[in-house]
Amino acid sequence: xxxxxxxxxxxxxxxxxxxxxxxxxxxxxxxxxxxxxxxxxxxxxxxxxxxxxxxxxxxxxxxxxxxxxxxxxxx
Length: 75
Hints:
It is built from two helices and four strands; from the N terminus they run H-H-E-E-E-E. The protein is of the alpha+beta class.
């Protein structure tokens, strides 16, 4: 299982704990950047007017919040 897939599982758990999607997105990117420290590999965060969030990882994988559910999209 990839680190990004593990992050998706974290997103679902954080949502169940009551965190907002925006705060979850920040937590996920902070965790990724801490684990990938020194490799200068950053997550691209995109927010949509509809309230959706896309986190695009250097590996090509994505985590998407569509306003209702979190989804994992493999590379």
